[in-house]
Amino acid sequence: MRAPNSIVALVLGWWLAFGASLSAHELRPSYLQITELEGETYDVLWKVPARGDSMRLSLDPYFDERVKPVGDPVDAFVDNAHIRRWKIECPGGIAGTEVTIGGLERTFTDALVRVAYADGTEFVTRLQPDDITATITAAPGTGAVAWTYFVLGVEHILLGIDHLLFVLALLLIIDSRRKLVGTITAFTLAHSITLALASLGYVSLPGPPVEAVIALSIVLVAMEILRKRRGDHPATARWPWVVAFGFGLLHGFGFAGALGEIGLPQKAVPLALLTFNVGVEAGQLIFVAAVLLLAAVLKRLPVQLPEWLKAVPPYAIGSLAMFWVIERSWDYTFGMLIS
Fold first, then answer.
1. At residue 59, what are phi and psi to the nearest 5 degrees?
2. Which residue ranges does UniProt annotate as crossing the membrane (predicted)?
3. Among candidate residues 291, 47, 27, the one with its CA nearest the CA of residue 157
4. CATH 2.60.40 domain span(s) along the chain
5. N or C: which end of the chain has fewer CB within 10 A?
């Protein structure tokens, strides 16, 4: 059942060549929130991924001619994001106007647009590089909210290289279908618990340390793979579902951090949370199925790969993850020292 190491090496090589070269900050969605105030006035918050206190993605929202700015915008860099706040006036109400995210067509990321009306209803839509303009309407139905957050969940897991690298490492050490099913189930259950608790505000952990420990979890599983290659019987190989559940709790905080950056519609929090989580699971299963299918196809090819190639995946996985541990720990520690 286990994917051949040579196949995993090919998958990992593709990641390192293309996926890992993309900054995680660049892949985070941008976020535009418009909150209705009084007298046809609206508060606008625009949040885009950034690096440090000076560099941000070159993305900006543009409204049609009905919308007029009020006062000067206020800018700030907070937690690897650039935030701009200002007010606008729109005679007749914001519904029916168009909003365009300039520069989105040149990125790999999305933009979530959310309008909170004074009566408690909300309009939510998602813009992509090939669809950068939306017409704001009254609050959409539950189907539109569900689909938006489902797609965001799928994209988050498929673009979350660290989360998928953890799943890939588990695939390397699992040697039976029963263990695979149990491991995926345990990982799903664990991160669903912490995703819900953290998103609803019952539990809170600082994001950077959680991200560093998530990377460390990948290093530990990579070390377990090497132990198994030497003939040992590590706990991860014998009870992978236990390891998946324990570390899955941490990964759930990572998912919650991403969802927190996007925000939840106040009138549809359970629906948005559920569909985002379902999207994460769907993306995870797509990845597992793709790796196993690729392994099954290429296993039939009459190609004899060198024995040393089998050592590439665990060392590559562990090295990349250890780089993340150092990078994330340093960024957090340095930020604490200068703050």
1. -125, 140
2. 147-173, 180-203, 209-227, 239-259, 271-296, 308-326
3. 27
4. 30-108+110-140
5. C
Cα distance between residue 253 and residue 9, in whole Å: 29
- Contact status, residue 273 vs residue 198, Cβ threshold 8 Å: no
* Residue 306 token pair: 């060198």
Nearest CA to 123 out of 112, 133, 132 is that of 112
308 or 205, greater pLDDT: 205
Interatomic CA distance for residues 274 and 253, integer angstroms: 15
> Distance (Å, rounded) from C-alpha 177 to C-alpha 170?
12
Highest mean pLDDT (candidates 21-30, 85-94, 256-265):
85-94
Name the token pair of 73. 């915008």
CA gap 62, 75 in Å, rounded: 17
Number of residues written out for the chain:
339
Within 10 A of 128 (CB to CB), how many other CB atoms are there? 17
pTM score, whole prediction: 0.74
